[in-house]
Write a structure and sequence with these properties.
CATH class of the largest domain: Mainly Alpha
Radius of gyration: 19 Å
Largest sheet: none
Length: about 240
């Protein structure tokens, strides 16, 4: 069974709300969800073992609050940190907060969820893609490309030029063979390629170039992206 929730270092006014959220998460934990963390390679400690669907149920009941999100993050619990991606207010997220939280990332689950549901909605998302893409830490670097993948799916106003610049970042990072980096890079490449015909052609060309690389990491990314981009249904959409 999960350990008893830690005392939250939140402000007194938020303390009871944080404690109630942790108690709710603990009550929703299941053996299956704890096993899924291991099954999907999510090394999270401490963690209750709660499905993302249930976390979203709790988020709806809590509503939006930047202060509450900061207090939940401070608890250190994996599920409480996932909860922040639905509770925080994107317009109030700061670059310093993004840096601080990202440096705490220690698994792909927290990285991808924060990028897909919060970071890509902030005014600083594109700047952070460029900034983090050169960072040496595995999960900080992955965050750059998970964020780029999220923007490719969600930022409807961004022009092609931004994503063409993103392809340059992808090519530069492709030789990094670390597991979570290369998977994030491939995700970004595939998502950009499915945005429109022009970006499909550019992504397909880069995928083929990487697939022919002598670098194992780049070759893996290229082949992984090609499997999706050359799928008949995908190819027909952008023919």
């Amino acid at each position: 069974m999960p350990a008893k929730p830690k005392k939250s270092p939140a402000e007194p006014s938020l303390g009871p709300q944080v404690e109630a959220a942790l108690a709710w998460l603990q009550a929703q934990s299941t053996e299956k969800d704890r096993e899924n963390l291991v099954r999907f390679g999510i090394n999270a400690d401490p963690a209750f073992g709660v499905s993302l669907a249930n976390i979203q149920v709790l988020a709806k009941s809590l509503g939006k609050s930047h202060e509450l999100a900061e207090a939940l993050w401070a608890t250190g619990w994996y599920e409480a940190r996932l909860l922040t991606s639905f509770v925080d207010e994107p317009a109030r997220v700061t670059p310093e907060q993004m840096d601080r939280w990202t440096e705490d990332f220690d698994n792909w689950g927290i990285c991808d969820t924060l990028c897909f549901h919060l970071f890509d909605r902030t005014p600083y998302a594109w700047d952070k893609v460029c900034e983090w893409s050169d960072r040496p830490e595995e999960f900080v670097k992955r965050t750059a490309f998970a964020l780029l993948a999220s923007l490719a799916g969600h930022d409807k106003k961004a022009g092609d030029e931004r994503f063409l610049e993103g392809l340059k970042l992808i090519e530069r990072a492709a030789p990094d063979g670390r597991n979570f980096v290369k998977k994030g890079v491939s995700w970004a490449l595939r998502r950009i390629g499915r945005r429109n015909s022009r970006l499909y052609a550019a992504s397909l060309a880069l995928s083929r170039k990487l697939a022919a690389s002598t670098e194992p990491g780049a070759r893996w990314i290229g082949k992984d992206a090609l499997r999706e981009l050359t799928n008949p249904k995908v190819a027909a959409k952008f023919a």
